[in-house]
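Progress report, Aim 2. The chain analyzed during this reporting quarter is listed below.
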Amino acid sequence: MVKAVAEELGNTPAVCRASYINPIIIERFLAGQFFEPYKQACRGRTKQYQSCEEKALLGFLNAIQ
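Predicted structure tokens for the chain:
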């Protein structure tokens, strides 16, 4: 995940972890606790331009604010 983000941003994985990715996201992703709690975001009406994973990420970010 970090490698893909780094490649997209033109940075190294270390820079992305330190500067762009909230450590909580990495912790929950590695623990397998990221997607499941927010899977409910995929229910109901969806917008064509938003994937289930994107909706789950938005739910996660709203929850940690």
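Residues 8 and 62 are 24 Å apart (CA to CA). The mean pLDDT is 80. These observations will guide the mutagenesis work planned for the next reporting period.
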